[in-house]
Amino acid sequence: MDRESALIRRLQSGETEAFDALFEMHRRGLFAYIAGIVRDQHLGEDICDLGTMVEERKRTAPSHHRTNPGTEMRRRKEKAMKCTTRSRLVVALCVTVSLLLGTVPGRGQHAEEGERKERRDREHAERREREEREREGRRERDEDRVRAEREERHHDRERDEGDEPKSFGELVERIAQHLPKHARKDIMEFTHHHFGDVLREAKHIFAEELGEAAEMVEHAFGESMDLIKLQREDPKVFERALRERQLEREAEEMAREAEHAEGKAKEKILLRLKELLSETFDMRQEDMRGEMKELEDELTGLKTLVEKRQKNRDLIIERRAKELTGELDHLEW
User: What pLDDT score does 106 carry?
Assistant: First the structure.
């Protein structure tokens, strides 16, 4: 039995002195309630003290009337009942005020936690809304940029179709206008150096097959851009890519020569063609083994990750739950 219940039982038994202890137990909450009403700290203290004095005077006032034992017993019971009722009202009032003011242990803390959770939920909702607006803005900007580029290409194509280039050089210049401005010069130099054979072939068919010549030039520019990027990222792989392309071009030339050769000359060309194809095949096999090794390493990493996640299953779930409920907000960078 807690102290408050014990005091109430004592009051019910007629021990009016227990009222003082109950009053003092809830004095702070009652004072806060009164001070909140009168909005004056000193006046609130005076009212509390006045209430205590009145109660004390009632309990200590001498009796002016002699009573017999039966009457005295009934008087005491009635006084105890009144005191009990009054104490219950005071206790109820104090507990209510305490709950409102958050002075009962644990209740104020729960209220604060509820407010923090509501604030976190509101902040999360605002953050999600802000992120969604940003994503929508980026998506709209990307769509506008793609649409503008598409329209620009369409206009350029209509202009080119309406006004065909008079020379192969003019064709190359028109196609080069679609290259990134900051890298246009480097791309054109790289293409002339490493794809000169393609440009020569495109120039050869320019007069009769303008469309095919344009496609060859565009393809050469595209491959040049990829190789320039590869050269910056991985020079070794870049050198291998150039070598493979050289072998492919030489093999195509050998095949064209073999079509018009006869006898021993053709056998010699075919022998050289097989040597080129053999070297190309070995390089491609090595490339595939490298790719396979990368896939195996990636698979091993994934297996290790899965095993670690399984071992930390409960911890991961607990952490995710805290992220969703905002309990880790204070740990954000």
Answer: 42
